[in-house]
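thread: overnight batch results

M.L. [08:02]
morning all. the overnight job finished for the chain we discussed friday. pasting input first so we're all looking at the same thing
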Amino acid sequence: MTFAQIGFGFFVFATFWILHLLWWRLCRPKGEIRPLVLAFLVAPGLLFLGINRFYPFWGTLDLALAFFVHLALAVVYIQTYPAIASTIPSFRILIGVHASKGGLSVPEIEGLFAQGELIGSRVELLGEDGLVRSGEKGLELSSFGRLLAVVFLTYRRFLGLQRGQG
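M.L. [08:03]
and the structure it wrote out:
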């Protein structure tokens, strides 16, 4: 792989990252996963296909290698975005303790969180992304949600983490 291929992959990722930030600032889409897949996989994939078809300044293999650089960056970003964008309890506690200048007691830390805030917003996002749906007994995984759960559970098992730990 050449520096030009690596550089072009980074350039395409950076370009779509900036477009993603503008899109989110102007009109934040519902859900997270589907818009991220559209912004970082579908649109760049179409761009690479279009370049290969209409402006073939490189061979197909060179362009494919540049796309794989972009793809690697995009997949990592898509996987980490929900953790970065959501209200992570540990981060909220850190920010609260930092803002207090003198520390926080357990009741003050509990006061940082509204009742049901952590669960309600997550369930809503899962529904908007099409990962869960209402069923007879409550929430059920969609086909895509089941696939994603299997992938993450397999990955966690590979890391040696048990369910509910880590």
